[in-house]
Structure formats: structure tokens, C-alpha cells
Design goal:
about 675 residues; alpha+beta; Chitinase A, domain 3; 4-stranded antiparallel β-sheet; 18 strands; about 45% helix; disordered N terminus
Length: about 675
């Protein structure tokens, strides 16, 4: 009973404890069951106009475009810059696609399935498809039948694994260009709508005509701002802040970082050179005498022995004289040579024979109903070995068959080039590269430099004292792929967005360099800070103050001659000033001066005018009008041509103003 009473006395407390426990249980269960929701949210590469781009969707698009690049270029390996280009192209396509969709939905614009079919395989195929070599016939012309055949083959598929893999690659290729057509045509529709809306009316046409035809002659004097000493004017902090506020929209920025970095080149040491030379010395006798030289070479050399035929054009330059010397014969060897950080020696395996350098081939159709295909001329180096050998050893009109994957292909030799001297060389070459020991020594030097100089200021001072180049890099954004020309330097960008200003990084390996960076600026505000643009604002504020100073000196002046005397300047003449002019005489872009001169009419003296280059006083003379008859249609057409760029500018503005969240930095 006592225990029961205690429970009653502490009932409120127990209820609270139990309630909290139940809440924790419920929340825990919710968070666990909802973890996929939160994880998925974190897996969004970005959001464009409310459309989420999931990581898997983004990666699939990257893989798709990579396949397109492979097919278009005929290559399978790409450098860092190409992969960066692919990533940016994919992202820009997402942004354009979803931005256009959002706008099209607002105005009820769409591309129907029939339209897309017409653009892809109809009578009016889109120019994007017409420019693809994969869709052209043997004459280099776009072939609708080729495209239809490709689509049909993709839809049917194949039981053969290799053929089916090829069809899947073809499908990836086709789907990309179909999407590109849809987006491009949507953009064309949107810009066409703008062009239809941007029309010049009769008042526009008349104003443009008069602005060009009506003008006046003018005399003027100008006091340049640079002629007034800075000491004669005063610029306050409030003047600069006022200008900053006026121009603030010009200073919008994406969050960015600035760094300075030093690089330690990863180069071979003396021991590395010695080791490479000693290796060739050890192998020299075996290389000269081995019956199967390919074992020695292919185990130790940077240049594999595959029995290729070298001509005087293709043989490595350092061995040309040796290989094609008079009396050169099989078994001859060079001594160990050193050139371009490489130790090498060569042995003649066969000499004194000739083969053609090039051949013209035709691919023979594999089945009835197909046509033979003339392939053109090839050099030996451009052909796979299994095709090059029979092609260059054969005669005109001969046919030969080679294995191609799981099938065969027959070729006919259409024409063959003139035979030239050839030689087979075995080359044992070792480029001197940094050893693991050398890597460790250079890496440790970089680490010690960091330990001794743990902040940006100390790092820069120590590097300069050591005669090392301190390289600045500005405006790194979260999605910047690499720092300057540093290879594999994306990790430096990630570090810069995680570190604090003034911090020094760990050692980064960037190609053949170890890099240490210091974070010098963190710019996360919406606008560039005042201090970052202070110099240009001070310059503008100073010119404004000088303009007021000059205008004050000229106050009440009643003649151009008096103004010239006060300014200490010569009177200049402009034969004709019209409202359509972009430049005032030889001075340059001075719209305020042009507008004032035309507006004040004939034989009038202006007040001092603040211009871009200085302060002007203008006296107009007689009217200087051009002869001409107003043609409303012609004027409207001219104005329409001037408006031509506006629809494309509108497209750019749509993308700039789109509601875009870019999270790519989290996945790069």
C-alpha cells in the first residue's frame, strides 16, 4: 500500500516521464520509417522550378551523354575537361528543360507527340538530327530510312547478346537526341512567340526616322576629369556608400572562395635516373641476344613489341638514322641512348623490305539486300593490326576476311599505295619516373612546410622567401571543377568550402604536383562587399566630385569662348550630331551630351554637362538634316531586325531568374 501511495504522490511526474518515453518511441519510429524520405531529400542534385533532380536521374543523364560523346568522337577515354563539360552540359539541359516547361505550362504551350514524330522522322526533320553523322547515308546526306531502320531495330531487339548490347547503346544515343530535339523546338517556339510580340508601331518608326535624319552641327569644349587634381575635391565615405547602394544589383554574386596555393613538383630524383639506367644496363646483353625478344621487351619496356612495321616517317626520331642506315640488318643494336627523360635502345628484327603505307578498302556486304561500303584510304597506323597486315600485304582486287566480335567481315583492296622501305624494331625504353621513395620525400617536404606555416599569411611569406611561386585563384564556386590548370584539383575546391578563412590545407596530389592551399577569402553574402569594389566606386565618386567642381567653376558662363578660357581647352567642332548617334565626335560614348545638344535646338549654348569623360559645354549651330522620305514599312523592318536578339536574351533571363537550387557540389 505504501508503494502504491508513493506512485499516487508522484503520479504527475510519472505521467510526464512515460509521456516523454512514448514520444521518443513514436518519433524514433517515425524517423526510422521516414529515413528514406529524408535520405531521398539529401540525394537531390538540385531543384529547378519545383522539379527535383534526383542523384540517380542526374547520373543516368551523365552516363547517357557520355555514351553520346563516345559514339560521336569514336573514343572511349576522355580527359578531365571533357568530363567536366559533360557534367555542365547535363545540368544546363535540366535547367533549360524544366525552366521551359514551367513557362510553357503558364501560357498553355506544348509539343504534341505528332509534332515530335514529325521533327524526328517526318518530312521536316529537325536540324539537330540532320547534322548527326550516325543518321547519314554513304553520300553524307541525312537518311530518314536509316533512322527508321535504327528505331525499328531498337524496338525489336535481338537474341544475340553482343548485338543487343549494341542496340542498347544505339537506343541511348537516339533517346538523347530525341530529348535534345524536344527541348530545342520548345525553345524555338518560345522565342518565335517573343518575336511575334515584339513589333514596332508607326510612332516607333517615325521616332527612329527623325532621330536619324534630324541633326545639328556643334562646337564644344571639354574639361577631362584627369585634368583636375584629386586634391581639389573631397570624397566622403557616405558618397561611396551611396554609390554602392545605387549599383548594388551589379555586385550580385554566387558564394565563392579565393585561395593562394604553392606546388611541389613531383619529379624524379638522381636515384631514379640511376635506377632506370642500371636496369637497361642489366638487360642489355639479354636484349641483344634473346631469341624471343618480345619477352624481354614486353616485360620491361614502355614500348611494347608487336611486330609493327616502321617507315622513315613513323620510326622514333632517335632511331631513324640507325634503322635505315645503309647495310642495316637484323640483329643490329644501338647502345643505350638518353633523350627526353627516357633511357632506350633498339634492335633490328627485320630490315631490307618494303610495304605500302596506305590502302583503300571496301567493306563487303554480309547479307543479301545490303550494299558494299567504300571506306576510303587508310594509313597503316589507322587500322587494327588484324586488318592492316593482310590489307598492306595484299594486292589490288584481293579480298580477305577477319574476325569481328562474334562474326566476320570481308574487305576488298580497292587500291594500294606505293611500297616504301620498312623495318621491324624492338625497342626497350624506360621513362624515368619518380619512385615511391621520391614521392614520400616530396610529400614529407610539403607536410613539413604546412607544419612550419600553419596560416595563410605565414605560408605566403615562407613560400616567397623560399623562391616558390604563390599562385592566387579567385571566384571558386561550389561547383568549380578544378583550380586553374591543376589536374584532379576538385578536392581543393571542396576543402575551400569547408575550411575557415585563413586556414591552410593538407597536401593534395594534383597530377604530377603536390599542392598546399591557403583560404584567403570567404564570400557568402548575396552581394560583393563594399571593400571589394571600393576602388571602382572611389573612382566614380571622385569623377562625380570633379564634375561638380568644374560645373561650379563654369557657373554663369555666357559664351563658349569664355568656357574654353576658364577650362584652358580648345574649342572643338562636330559636323553633325543626331539622336541616333552612339558616339559624340571623336570623344566616344557620351549619350548625355548627344541628347542635350539635339534637344536644345539650333544656335543655343548648353549648361555644363556631366559626361563620361569630363564636363562639356556645347554650342549648337545650324540644323544639319539629312534628305530622305519616311517609309514606315522599311523603318519597322529595321527596328524588327534590331529586336532580333531580344527573344534569345529573354531565354537567358528566364534561366537567370529561374528558381534553381544547385546541390551538385555535394556530389562532385
Amino acid at each position: 500500500m505504501a508503494s502504491l501511495q508513493k506512485i499516487r504522490n508522484h503520479g504527475a511526474l510519472l505521467i510526464a516521464i512515460v509521456g516523454l518515453a512514448m514520444l521518443a518511441f513514436i518519433l524514433g519510429d517515425f524517423l526510422n520509417s521516414g529515413s528514406s524520405f529524408f535520405n531521398r531529400s539529401r540525394e537531390n542534385v538540385g531543384v529547378v522550378e519545383g522539379q527535383k533532380i534526383h542523384y540517380t536521374e542526374y547520373e543516368a543523364a551523365k552516363d547517357q551523354l557520355t555514351e553520346v560523346y563516345k559514339i560521336e568522337s569514336g573514343r572511349t577515354d576522355f580527359d578531365e575537361d571533357t568530363y567536366s563539360q559533360i557534367r555542365n552540359q547535363v545540368w544546363n539541359m535540366f535547367v533549360m528543360d524544366y525552366t521551359l516547361r514551367a513557362q510553357a505550362e503558364k501560357i498553355g504551350m506544348a509539343i504534341t507527340p505528332d509534332e515530335l514524330t514529325e521533327l524526328c522522322i517526318g518530312e521536316h526533320v529537325h536540324q539537330i538530327l540532320r547534322g548527326r553523322r550516325a543518321f547519314m547515308d554513304e553520300n553524307g546526306q541525312y537518311s530518314r530510312e536509316t533512322v527508321k531502320g535504327l528505331i525499328s531495330a531498337i524496338q525489336e531487339g535481338s537474341d544475340d547478346a553482343e548485338q543487343n548490347a549494341n542496340l542498347q547503346q544505339a537506343k541511348t544515343y537516339w533517346m538523347y537526341w530525341e530529348k535534345a530535339v524536344r527541348i530545342s523546338y520548345m525553345q524555338e517556339k518560345y522565342t518565335a512567340l517573343f518575336q511575334h510580340l515584339l513589333k514596332a508601331n508607326s510612332l516607333d518608326a517615325e521616332f527612329a526616322f527623325n532621330g536619324r535624319q534630324n541633326g545639328v552641327s556643334a562646337d564644344y569644349v571639354m574639361q577631362p576629369y584627369y585634368a583636375v587634381a584629386d586634391s581639389l575635391v573631397k570624397v566622403s565615405e557616405s558618397d561611396i556608400k551611396k554609390l554602392y547602394k545605387q549599383h548594388q544589383e551589379q555586385y550580385k554574386q554566387t558564394p565563392n572562395r579565393a585561395i593562394k596555393y604553392i606546388a611541389f613538383d613531383i619529379v624524379p630524383s638522381e636515384d631514379d635516373f640511376k635506377a632506370a639506367e642500371e636496369l637497361l644496363v642489366r638487360l642489355q646483353e639479354e636484349f641483344k641476344t634473346a631469341e624471343d625478344v618480345s619477352v624481354v621487351v614486353n616485360t620491361n619496356s614502355d614500348i611494347m613489341y608487336d611486330g609493327r612495321d616502321y617507315s622513315e616517317e613513323t620510326v622514333p626520331a632517335q632511331f631513324k638514322e640507325f634503322a635505315f642506315a645503309k647495310g642495316a640488318k637484323a640483329g643490329d643494336c644501338t647502345e643505350i641512348l638518353f633523350e627526353n627523360n627516357t633511357y632506350a635502345m633498339a634492335r633490328i628484327m627485320q630490315a631490307g623490305y618494303s610495304l605500302p603505307d596506305s590502302v583503300e578498302l571496301k567493306a563487303i556486304a554480309a547479307a543479301e539486300g545490303q550494299e558494299d561500303q567504300e571506306l576510303g584510304w587508310f594509313k597503316a597506323a589507322d587500322l587494327p593490326k588484324n586488318i592492316a597486315e593482310p590489307a598492306l600485304a595484299g594486292k589490288r582486287g584481293e579480298k580477305f576476311t577477319v574476325a569481328m566480335g562474334m562474326g566476320e567481315q570481308t574487305y576488298e583492296i580497292m587500291e594500294i599505295g606505293k611500297p616504301t622501305p620498312k623495318v621491324k624494331l624492338a625497342i626497350l625504353a624506360r621513362e624515368v619516373t619518380p619512385s615511391s621513395k621520391t614521392y614520400s620525400i616530396i610529400y614529407n617536404s610539403a607536410k613539413q612546410f604546412i607544419v612550419a606555416n600553419p596560416n595563410a599569411e605565414a605560408l605566403e611569406a615562407a613560400a616567397q622567401e623560399a623562391g616558390m611561386a604563390v599562385i592566387p585563384q579567385y571566384n571558386l564556386t561550389a561547383t568549380t571543377d578544378k583550380v586553374g590548370q591543376l589536374k584532379a584539383s576538385r578536392p581543393i575546391v571542396r576543402w575551400a568550402f569547408e575550411a575557415k578563412e585563413g586556414a591552410v590545407s593538407d597536401v593534395f596530389e594534383c597530377g604530377q604536383q603536390f599542392v598546399v592551399a591557403a583560404l584567403t577569402e570567404v564570400n557568402d553574402d548575396e552581394y560583393r562587399p563594399l571593400n571589394a569594389v571600393r576602388a571602382e566606386l572611389t573612382y566614380e565618386a571622385t569623377n562625380n566630385a570633379k564634375a561638380e567642381y568644374i560645373k561650379k567653376e563654369l557657373k554663369g558662363v555666357e559664351s563658349l569662348e569664355k568656357a574654353a578660357e576658364l577650362m584652358g581647352q580648345q574649342i572643338q567642332h562636330v559636323e553633325r550630331v543626331a539622336l541616333s548617334d552612339s558616339r559624340f565626335g571623336n570623344v566616344g560614348m557620351e549619350p548625355a551630351v548627344i541628347g542635350t545638344a539635339v534637344a536644345q535646338g539650333e544656335n543655343a549654348l548648353s549648361e555644363p554637362i556631366q559626361g563620361n569623360m569630363g564636363v562639356f559645354v556645347v554650342k549648337t549651330g545650324a540644323a544639319n538634316n539629312l534628305e530622305g522620305t519616311f517609309d514606315a514599312s522599311s523603318e519597322k523592318a529595321q527596328l524588327a531586325s534590331r529586336f532580333a536578339y531580344l527573344p534569345y536574351q529573354a531565354m537567358q533571363m528566364l534561366e537567370d531568374k529561374a528558381d534553381v537550387t544547385d546541390n551538385r557540389a555535394n556530389f562532385q
